[in-house]
């Protein structure tokens, strides 16, 4: 992995790989979609509160997927 990858790089890749819109991730993470968009475009810095919400959104989605997978085996 590139040692210079940023949280924005990871978020962009995550959205692309999971075919998720900024709006949908905004609903899950609780971060305003305009804030996410501005952050991804490099127009505004990411705050610690938003970073916490983004990582919590990733964890929520991972747990939801794992629960779905195990209950539908």
Report on this structure.
There is one protein chain. The chain has 73 residues and is mainly alpha-helical. It has a single domain (7-71), classed as 434 Repressor (Amino-terminal Domain) (Orthogonal Bundle), CATH 1.10.260. It contains 4 helices and no strands. It has helices at residues 7-17, 22-29, 33-40, 48-71. The longest helix has 24 residues, at 48-71. The protein is globular, with a radius of gyration of 13 Å.
What's the layout of helices and strands?
Blueprint lengths: L6 H11 L4 H8 L3 H8 L7 H24 L2
User: What's the CATH class label?
Assistant: Mainly Alpha
Counted beta strands? 0
Give a quick account of the main beta sheet: strands, pairing sense, barrel closure: none
Low-confidence stretches: none
Number of helices: 4
Oligomer: single chain
The fraction of residues assigned to DSSP E strands is under 5%
Mean pLDDT value: 81
Global structural class: mainly alpha
Helices and strands, in N-to-C order?
HHHH
How many discrete domains? 1
Rough shape? Answer: globular
Q: End-to-end span in angstroms?
A: 32 Å
CATH architecture term: Orthogonal Bundle
The helix fraction, in percent, is 55-70%
- Spatial extent as radius of gyration: 13 Å
**CATH topology grouping:** 434 Repressor (Amino-terminal Domain)
Organism: Paenibacillus barcinonensis
GO molecular function: DNA binding
InterPro entries: Lambda_DNA-bd_dom_sf
Protein name: HTH cro/C1-type domain-containing protein
């Amino acid at each position: 992995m590139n040692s210079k990858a940023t949280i924005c790089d990871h978020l962009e890749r995550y959205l692309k790989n999971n075919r998720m819109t900024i709006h949908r991730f905004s609903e899950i993470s609780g971060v305003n979609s305009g804030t996410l968009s501005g952050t991804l475009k490099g127009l505004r810095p990411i705050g610690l509160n938003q970073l916490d919400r983004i990582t919590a959104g990733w964890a929520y989605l991972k747990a939801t997927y794992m629960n779905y997978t195990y209950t539908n085996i």
